[in-house]
């Protein structure tokens, strides 16, 4: 449910065009028929040329090393890809810890001190974001 995901993630604050859902539905259904490397870009027709140029040349939408233009920020651009399902967990209770440890250890190339890592997470964990079946994650 695309609308539910957008609302749950807090991506729509009620200040965008009333056509946002139609635009996202069109992008989502179009991406389903195109190669996995295809992206859809949602931005204003009045967006700064450098943003459009950066997206076309596969660079970040807004360069962090350059001064920000007052009429453009990275939050003004939405890049969509049809790919792995993304799951957000607000607690470790719903995370498959075996898969989490396997991914972390294969990524770091060494065994993780699980007890020490978990004790650090207790005080600062916000969310665990999992891509696919633990092909990637962000903590």
TrEMBL record:
Q: What is this protein called?
A: Amino-acid acetyltransferase, mitochondrial
Instruction: Give EC number(s), comma-separated.
Output: 2.3.1.1
Q: Which GO terms describe its molecular function?
A: L-glutamate N-acetyltransferase activity
| Pfam families the UniProt entry points to | NAT
Q: Which InterPro entries match?
A: Vertebrate-like_GNAT_dom
Q: Name one GO biological process term.
A: L-arginine biosynthetic process
According to the entry, every stretch annotated as the N-acetyltransferase domain falls at 84-139
Function noted in UniProt: N-acetylglutamate synthase involved in arginine biosynthesis.
This protein's UniProt keywords:
Amino-acid biosynthesis, Mitochondrion, Transferase, Transit peptide
- Domain of life per record: Eukaryota
Where in or outside the cell it occurs: the entry states:
Mitochondrion
Asked whether the keyword Transcription is assigned, the reply is no
**Keyword Transferase carried by entry:** yes
Q: What pathway is it annotated to? A: Amino-acid biosynthesis; L-arginine biosynthesis; N(2)-acetyl-L-ornithine from L-glutamate: step 1/4
A GO CC term?
A: mitochondrial matrix
Recorded family membership: Belongs to the acetyltransferase family.
This enzyme catalyses: L-glutamate + acetyl-CoA = N-acetyl-L-glutamate + CoA + H(+)
């Amino acid at each position: 449910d695309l609308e539910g995901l957008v609302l749950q993630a807090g991506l729509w604050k009620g200040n965008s065009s009333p056509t946002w859902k139609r635009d996202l539905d069109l992008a989502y259904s179009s991406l389903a028929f195109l190669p996995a490397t295809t992206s859809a870009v949602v931005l204003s027709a009045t967006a700064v040329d450098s943003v459009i140029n950066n997206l076309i040349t596969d660079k970040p939408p807004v360069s962090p090393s350059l001064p920000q233009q007052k009429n453009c920020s990275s939050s003004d651009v939405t890049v969509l890809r049809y790919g792995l399902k993304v799951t957000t967990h607000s607690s470790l209770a719903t995370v498959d810890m075996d898969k989490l440890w396997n991914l972390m250890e294969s990524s770091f190339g060494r065994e993780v001190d699980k007890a020490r890592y978990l004790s650090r997470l207790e005080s600062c964990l916000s969310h665990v974001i999992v891509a696919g079946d633990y092909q990637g994650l962000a903590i």
